[in-house]
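Researcher: Next sequence.
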Amino acid sequence: MMKKFFALCLLVMATMSVSAKDIKEFIVTTTPQMSCQNCENKIKKNLRFEKGVTDIRTDLASQLVVITYDADKTNEAALTKAFEKLDYKVTPAVTKGVAVGVSDSKACSGAKACSKAAKTCDATSGATAQQCSGDDCKSGCADCKAHAATKKADAACKKADAACKRADAHCKAADAQCKKADEACKRADAQCKAADKKIKKAETKIKKAEAESQKAKK
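Model: Next structure:
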């Protein structure tokens, strides 16, 4: 009976100990970004052994790293240093308009800036309000501007190419007309030469006729 009572006391104490833990989440994006599964594995493999870390999740699509930790054993500064050991810089991510580790006013301004930038891009652009904060936001906005500039340049090239094709078509048409005119000129020149020969023959005949006429008078 005493053993059961003692075991029950230990269970209650353990439950109270677990419930007393200050569990928090540290949600960040990394610089450089995670480009493949190996990057995810590298982060998970090394940070899971950091003191106080209870869980770590990564997502390539959103470029988010979510670390669940015991605030009594570690903090965001220590976790940031752990990332730096892996040659990663981290930026608190904006989630649902509120940034972890960033004031609400800064989070809102960052989200609005990225939302505005994202509207100028295609669905393929990398800047979204949920992913942007600080340097990441500036980088995302720069990507959007570069993407928009590329699209404009591509459209200008297509217009120039179309204009060149039209000009080439006009040149071909003009060249065909010139060839036709040149052929007509050659035919006319041949006719002129033939007429000139006929005239010379006629003049020769006339001279002979005049000479014969003079002989007859004598």
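Model: The longest strand covers residues 23-31. The radius of gyration is 45 Å.
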